[in-house]
Request: fold
Amino acid sequence: MISSLFLTRSEALPVNLPQAASAELQQRTRITVTVEDSGEIALNREAISLENLQAGVRDLMDGTPETVVVINADEAVSHGQVVAVMDELRAIEGATLGIATRRD
Reply:
């Protein structure tokens, strides 16, 4: 399941988020995955490769049964890059995905 999020406090790197009129405040945010316009990926502000993303998120979850992982992707990032990140994250049991947007 994918939901749209409006983040008031973000631990991600600055990116130009796409707008969404239906953005809602999400209080359970724990882990942020940022995809910069250059395609670089960061996990809670630390650079990480796509290949190490699952392990990094699992380490941060540290046994937490349900965690929200927010994808904070620049609007200039290719759809394919975001899908690749989502594919990696969807394989993590207990992780709920969200995509960060900014309000209109």
Notes: Residues 2-101 form one domain.
